[in-house]
From TrEMBL:
<dbReference type="GO" id="GO:0009986">
    <property type="term" value="C:cell surface"/>
</dbReference>
<protein>
    <submittedName>
        <fullName>Mesothelin</fullName>
    </submittedName>
</protein>
<dbReference type="GO" id="GO:0007160">
    <property type="term" value="P:cell-matrix adhesion"/>
</dbReference>
<comment type="similarity">
    <text>Belongs to the mesothelin family.</text>
</comment>
<keyword id="KW-0472">Membrane</keyword>
<keyword id="KW-0325">Glycoprotein</keyword>
<dbReference type="GO" id="GO:0016020">
    <property type="term" value="C:membrane"/>
</dbReference>
<dbReference type="InterPro" id="IPR010335">
    <property type="entry name" value="Mesothelin"/>
</dbReference>
<keyword id="KW-0130">Cell adhesion</keyword>
<keyword id="KW-0732">Signal</keyword>
<dbReference type="InterPro" id="IPR026664">
    <property type="entry name" value="Stereocilin-rel"/>
</dbReference>
<dbReference type="Pfam" id="PF06060">
    <property type="entry name" value="Mesothelin"/>
</dbReference>
Amino acid sequence: GFTCAAANEMEAERFQELAKVMKKKKVKLGEDQLSCLVKMVLLHGTPKDLDSYPEELLLFLSPSDYAVTGSCMQYFANIGKANLDVLQRESSQRKRLLLEALACLKIPGTEVNEENAEILGRLVCDLDGEYIRSSGGNLLRQLSQCASFRADQEEAIRSVISSGNTTFGPPEAWSTFTLNELSGLIPIFDHSILQKIPKNAWTLWLKNSARDSPLSREQLAAIVEELLPTRHKRAAGCPPDKKITEEILEDDFMPLYYPPDLLRACLKNVSLENHLSQILTYPFTVEQLAVLKDYLNEMYPDGYPESLFPKLGPLFSLFTPEDISKFQITSADGLADLLNNQPNPAQASAIIKRYVDLGHALNATALNAIGTKYLCLLNATELNTIDPSSLKLVSLNPSACSQSTKNILYAKAKRAFSDQPFPAYYELIKPYLEGAPGVDLKDLSKKNVNMNINTFVKLRRDSLMSLTPSEVKGLLGIYLPDLKEWQKKSPIWEWVQTQKQSELNKLGIGLTGGTQEGYINIMTPKFPTPSAASLGPVAMMLHLLPPLLISFLMMSILS
């Protein structure tokens, strides 16, 4: 992928061409790449053919930027097709886009008609519950495309569907066709909606469409639970017509035929060895899965062998750290297979601990398996065993970890990438920069790196505070103007207050709040007590004060 550090060397026109090619090739871009692309595309004013650029680029512009290309309605119709998730769900940019869209479409209250819902497209996913309730069923088709919902949206969708006042009619009258139309909403249906939908519609839908639906195995299992008889007699044995045959093991809907007790009775003397990974993709309920786990425990009393790890899938949620402490993890691949099962943090810690306790190294394969997701679970002892060179072969981001974890990993990453030239070195070290000491940032400021503001504000607090305005200018490059928007927010506000105003003026972006010449700014720091080393600047300032003022200060301190 292209990077902003490399962007400087390309002229704006070549950049515009590159952006148009990206649209044709449907290249997926992240937030950082897009915000960089916008800056370069708009370098010499707004192009008149914004429709030739990736739709996601428009997320960083406004209807007024688009005016040279077309109307605000056309702008929002394009935004509706863009991948909104490039922007954080609750970000101010996404909120602004929605408000501007509602103003453009002249939607006065909270009722949105079908035509406007069509134009809003994916922006519908950001409308709150009030809009969903007022608009009746008009938004359901668009909402079915959303990746996730907030609690107020879920409640509103359930209330609209339960009311039955939509073009789809009440759930009691739904068919397989309705379930296909609204399949994206099925995961948020509660028991009262699920049980109203005719069972034959469910059974037909499960058999014909479930495989192509976006529903997960767990979500399908919730439907199976609704369809299984609620009261089942304890099976004395396995009835002859329920014998588990090869044909049954090949049937995706095996869970529909075996309530938990019947499954337990009929699994006796059946070998699942060759079918395990296949049947665990079937929508078994949690109770049915517990029966399968018991079956495996009986088969492997000394702990599961590594050959079983890739097949465990949905059983994983049932394992306790104690179960895991018996697993026979013999290699980094085995560790990877276990962590592929999306364990929860307690399970993942137990897996990593078991792996390390068995004497295995945290090499590149192991680190790739641990990934950003479980990286923060590593303790200092485990982190220190990492060989820096293995960081060259993995892609990690310690952003969510503790500061001490960030510091350890930064030092290792710096050693790992030290042989790389710029701008490659910067792109590789960037995910680890939140652990960088001030001296390294000062060095980077001379390298024309174009650090974006989101990276800058997450730098280590003491490191950021140690930078001078000219060093900040060197780090931010084309992103320097973004500093103004952060002026009143932490940590930029604390940094501004400790700088001379005359130095801030040299940045030319209108930052205010620095200290005036001849004044001393005695601030209470909001961060840890300074060490003796960082008291140096304070001592310097005191040295410059007239002796009288010093004696006055000393008296007030001692009194």
